Amino acid sequence: SSGIKQSTGVEISKNGSIALRRKVGSETEEFRVSSNGMDITVVGDNTRQLKMSYTTLQPRWYSRYEKLLYCVTALKSSTPKVTIHGPTASAYYMENGPDPNFQVVFRDGYKLNRDSNRCYVTDPDKKVTMATQNMTPCLDMCPSLQVYLHTGKLLYTQCRAVEQ
Known about the structure:
Elements: E1 6-12, E2 18-24, E3 27-33, E4 39-44, E5 47-53, H1 62-76, E6 80-85, E7 89-94, E8 102-106, E9 111-114, E10 119-122, E11 128-132, H2 143-163
Antiparallel strand pairs: 1-2, 2-3, 3-4, 4-5, 6-7, 7-8, 8-9, 9-10, 10-11
């Protein structure tokens, strides 16, 4: 260890921009990306403000941009864009398009989760009871699990309609 105290933090502002703040010793640096991901501003204690666009991003800043991109992607994948509450379940259509994550929380404790790669149902004990590539039931699937998938497909269609 070098003995120099370091800290890092991420901040999302009301206008949608995101900043990575680093403090190394007494030196502070802020790397801020606009909400559209195209405009970057770097400000430090001993440097003047540096503005650039994504297309002119200097290689020394790539790792910081990638860290913020990872944070935004993770956040959007679990932030509902559309929420529908029904008598048997609540559905959450997430922000991470174009093929967003989707979750249905059933009143009996079961959950259906869908991302771009798979769809799975978990029971109230958080055990995966079924997994498919999409929300299409398998031929040998028990009828109760088919009901969860059918309800999930209906709610997914409703969420998509609201989003568009």
